[in-house]
Structure to design on (175 residues):
C-alpha cells in the first residue's frame, strides 16, 4: 500500500538567499507552497517528491523589492504563478542523508537540480498523527531559469549574484 506524506504547513519553511552587491546576502522565503511525498513505505528511495510554490508569495521583508521580484524583470508572477519541482531520483547516501535530484520549473523553463536532504526522523504527535521532518539545501543559477535582470556596479561586479542558495525545513504528516 502506497504512503502519502502531506505538508504540515505550520511547521515548514522554504527559504533562499542571494548575494547583493557582492558584499552581503539578502534572504527571502515563499509563504505559500505545498509539498507531498508519494511512496516511501520502506524508506524514501522509491518515493516521489512533488512541490508547487506560489510565485507571488515571495517575501524578502521589503515590499518594493518583493514587487520587483514579482515583475517581469524576475518571476513575472502574473504570467507564471507557480514554480514546480518533481523528483526524478532519491538516493540514500548514509543513514538519514539523501541526494534528491529533480526537475525544477520556473517561468516554463525546466532544469534538473540536486538537493542535499537530511531526514530528521519521525514521531507521533499528541493527537496520534505520524510526522516526518526533513531539512534540505541546494543551489541554482538563476539565469538558467530566465531570471536575468541585473545592474553593473561602478566598483565592478553586479547588483545580484547568479547563484541562489535554497534551503528549507519541511515537516510532513502521514496520510
Amino acid at each position: 500500500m502506497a504512503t502519502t506524506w502531506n505538508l504540515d504547513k505550520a511547521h515548514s519553511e522554504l527559504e533562499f538567499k542571494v548575494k547583493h552587491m557582492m558584499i552581503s546576502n539578502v534572504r527571502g522565503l515563499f509563504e505559500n507552497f505545498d509539498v507531498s511525498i508519494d511512496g516511501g513505505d520502506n524508506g524514501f528511495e522509491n518515493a516521489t517528491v512533488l512541490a508547487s510554490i506560489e510565485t507571488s508569495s515571495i517575501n524578502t521583508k521589503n515590499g518594493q523589492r518583493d514587487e520587483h521580484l514579482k515583475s517581469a524583470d524576475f518571476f513575472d508572477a502574473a504570467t507564471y504563478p507557480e514554480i514546480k519541482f518533481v523528483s526524478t531520483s532519491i538516493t540514500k547516501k548514509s543513514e538519514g542523508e539523501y541526494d534528491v535530484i529533480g526537475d525544477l520549473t520556473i517561468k516554463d523553463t525546466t532544469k534538473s537540480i540536486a538537493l542535499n536532504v537530511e531526514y530528521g526522523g519521525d514521531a507521533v504527535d499528541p493527537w496520534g498523527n505520524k510526522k516526518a521532518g526533513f531539512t534540505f539545501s541546494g543551489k541554482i543559477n538563476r539565469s538558467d531559469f530566465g531570471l536575468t535582470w541585473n545592474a553593473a556596479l561602478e566598483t565592478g561586479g553586479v547588483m545580484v549574484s547568479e547563484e541562489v542558495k535554497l534551503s528549507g525545513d519541511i515537516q510532513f504528516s502521514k496520510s
The first strand starts at residue 4 and ends at 7.
